[in-house]
Amino acid sequence: MHRKNLNLILAGLALSSPVALVAYAETYMNEDQAGTSLFPGVQLKLNLLELTPDEVKAIEKKSDERVLSPKLRVYRGTKGETLFIDRVIGKHEFITYAAAINPDGKVKGIEIMDYKETFGKQVRNKDWRDQFAGKDESSTLRVTKDIKNISGATLSSVHITNGVRRILQTYEIIKSRI
Amino acid sequence: MASGEFFKLMKSLKAGFNRKRAKPLLGTFVVVSAKGPDEGAADQAIEKAFEAVAKVQRHMSTHDPESDISRLSRMKPFIPISVDPWTHEVLTLSRRISLASEGFFDVTVGGKLEDLGFLSRGKGSARPWGEATYADVDLLPGSRVLLRRPCRLDLGGIAKGFAVDKAVEAALGVPGVRDVVVNAGGDLRLKTSKPQAIWFRDPFRPDHFWPGGFMKDGALASSGGTESVRDSSQGLRTPILRPGQNRAPKLVFGVSVFAPACVLADALTKVALLAPASLAQKTLDVFQAKAWIAKKDGFMEISKSPVGFPNRLGKLGL
Prior knowledge:
The structure holds two protein chains of two kinds.
Chain A: H1 2-14, E1 19-20, E2 23-27, H2 31-38, E3 45-50, H3 53-63, E4 71-76, E5 82-89, E6 93-101, E7 107-118, H4 126-130, H5 137-140, E8 143-144, E9 150-151, H6 158-174
Parallel strand pairs in A: 2-8
Antiparallel strand pairs in A: 2-7, 3-4, 4-5, 5-6, 6-7
Helix pairs in contact in A: 3-6
Chain B: H1 3-15, E1 17-25, E2 28-36, H2 39-60, H3 68-74, E3 81-82, H4 85-100, H5 110-115, E4 137-140, E5 144-147, H6 159-172, E6 179-184, E7 187-201, E8 208-224, E9 230-232, E10 235-237, E11 254-259, H7 262-274, H8 277-286, E12 290-295, E13 298-301
Antiparallel strand pairs in B: 1-2, 2-6, 3-5, 4-5, 6-7, 7-8, 8-11, 9-10, 11-12, 12-13
Helix pairs in contact in B: 2-6, 6-7, 7-8
């Protein structure tokens, strides 16, 4: 069985040439699904909050992480359950994820919502990123959703770990307002 | 029944219900897809898969001071300690791969990696670590392990593949679930009813993908290339070391290994990168695996090219 599969793969490789892509993207869930997955059966209500410049400074100092946007999307349940929708920028990727915080202030779980890869220095360059502001990014970038089951050098989740550290500090600062 | 309706019904039966989720685990992104007869079964399969991965992380992480691996690294020689049966299973398989590869795969490399600054110094590790090898790890009955010399174990080269296998097994344990794909940051295992297209990321140009044909039951893991380079006390280096080597290489070839199980594919990437070609080929044959070496301009089969480190690093663009 395995031998047969390997032969298939070999046939594929002999004829193959690489496909160049500007970006690779995948969507796993939307905000509703993230809420249901992390807080099953809990009614969550969306709060849109904005951090003051002083709050941004305080969070950055305590978490040692830059705040990308002062605008927050925070869902709140009736018993103090909190769900943050957040975004991080990695080595060459954008990641949207949901972080669930229990009423005791501890992380309950994390779900990755969507993931987009882009390459090169452009990702780090603010002007380049600003071109996409207010636009549908998938129409600007050549994004593929057809490539699945990729084996390759390991991607790091360190940026999410750092993002969650920032969210915990954000939670401490804004918990009285939500 | 009109034939159109019949085909529609057949199609819906075949399709089942697909779910896909991703979580940050094992220091990477773990993506699980499952197809079940209904939404609930697919969700349950994915949940079971993530639980299995989290269990492997709990027992085998080098970053968690309470994991089996951290406890072993703090242990004085000749005192047996109990570990989880899964940890024992990984160490047993590691030993088989070490023996087959004459030590080119070795879980005691953790000491060297710590000395070189790839791993943070553990509590109470007041050493440069000694010259321990896999032969100093004794596996005793009853899930116990004894070290003959102080060792810092690192399962970084095998635990991820093991977690992927356990996740697939756990998901397939849910009644009605036949199709599962688990991908832990590029270490991949598929068990599906229909062949799935697979792709390689080019390890020197991460925005390039190579079509890898089709697979429906098997595993694939990749290592090396520019994406494996990390920060160390010697600057940017690759944490893939030859036995007895005191310097980390700047860059190694990329390699992708196909094997019946992901735990084998993961561990054998190191053998394919490090061992002399004939020994690497022999070891791959033992485990029914196949390796592809990735050079800057594409993949080639292991038996047709010299394996190991690039002779002229400059040529590879670093």
